[in-house]
Design brief:
By secondary structure, this protein is α/β, with parallel strands linked by helices. The protein has nine helices and 15 strands. It folds into two domains: 148 residues, 2-Layer Sandwich (Nucleotidyltransferase, domain 5), CATH 3.30.420.40; 154 residues, ATPase, nucleotide binding domain (Nucleotidyltransferase, domain 5), CATH 3.30.420.40. Helices cover 36% and strands 22% of the residues.
């Protein structure tokens, strides 16, 4: 068996997979982000222990997808948002590997998302793909010639901070980035600018579903911005398959029409049609992708795992 762990800002999602990446069982626990890296990894280990208590198995390796900028080779978090305490600099793979006795591999969460979608999701088997996640921010990852391409500095595919989308301030300190129009935070902000109302992106989507013209306009602008980023990538890299996930993609019926319209109005210079799909694995994509990397890179013999804890504080339990 292989395990995949998605350590998010609010929830940690752990899956147990067969070598074919079929999800046997999964567990979600709250992420103690304010308590630091030791507590966060401890929560993930507890969740994994619960899975192994329910599904006795031999664990081959573990993959971890973590928010922020990570050094995948060294297995540590380099930069994390202020949502996480004592997470930047944390040695994820060394800490988990010492506790488990099996190889542990670390990925940026968006890279893991794309691995999952290429392995078992909406773009399974594709060799050239750009993955985008529209959540609190906008993330991106690039799959070229059948493998993840990270670039020399680990930032390949980071579409969220492409400039040229107006002059609004971005959370990174820049201006006019894609994230200022297409993230959940920016959708809420743009709606607030138009209406004076403080609403979440989900609430804005619900308002759009009721025909609110301001909400519809905000989502139309978000979709058009995503389409422009797609066209930039298609023109630069000759990639014509795109998979979009993240919480904002839950409003796919609001985003897709403006994405399609923009791509129809201005097709890529190659003349080849662009395929844009919503992610197929939902909230499990990062964890499944992390398990996929563990499966691919592990060369260690099987090692049995015993549950770490009998009493993890869980919120939900799902069987896959």
């Amino acid at each position: 068996m292989f395990a995949g762990v998605d350590i998010g800002g609010t929830t940690t999602h752990v899956v147990l997979c067969t070598p074919e990446l079929a999800v046997v069982d999964s567990q979600e626990v709250p992420t103690p982000a304010a308590e630091g890296g030791t507590a966060m990894v401890g929560a993930a280990l507890d969740a994994l222990g619960l899975l192994l208590a329910r599904v006795p198995a031999r664990l081959r390796a573990v993959g971890v997808g973590a928010a922020g900028l990570v050094d995948a080779r060294a297995g540590r978090v380099l930069v994390a948002s202020d949502s996480f305490h004592a997470w930047a600099g944390f040695e994820v793979t060394a800490t988990m590997g010492a506790a488990l006795g099996v190889p542990v591999f670390l990925d940026n969460d968006v890279n893991a998302f794309l691995r999952g979608e290429v392995a078992k999701g909406a773009v399974a088997g594709e060799r050239h793909v750009l993955g985008m996640t529209l959540g609190t921010g906008v993330g991106g990852a690039l799959w070229l010639d059948g493998a993840l391409y990270e670039g020399p500095h680990g930032a390949a595919g980071e579409t969220g901070h492409i400039p040229g989308f107006g002059d609004l301030p971005c959370t990174c300190g820049g201006r006019g980035h894609l994230e200022t129009l297409a993230s959940g935070r920016s959708i809420a902000a743009r709606y607030g600018e138009r209406t004076g109302l403080d609403r979440s992106a989900r609430a804005v989507a619900e308002a759009a579903g009721r025909g609110d013209p301001d909400a519809l306009a905000v989502y139309e602008a978000a979709g058009a911005a995503v389409a422009r980023a797609i066209l930039i990538t298609a023109g630069m890299l000759d990639v014509t398959t795109f998979v979009i996930g993240g919480g904002v993609s839950g409003a796919w019926t609001l985003l897709e029409p403006s994405i399609r319209a923009a791509l129809t109005a201005e097709p890529p210079v190659s003349g080849h049609p662009v395929r844009v799909v919503r992610a197929g694995l939902g909230s499990a994509a990062v964890a499944v992708g992390a398990a996929s990397r563990a499966r691919t890179e592990s060369r260690e013999p099987l090692v049995p795992l015993r549950p770490r804890s009998e009493g993890a504080n869980t919120t939900t339990s799902r069987s896959g």
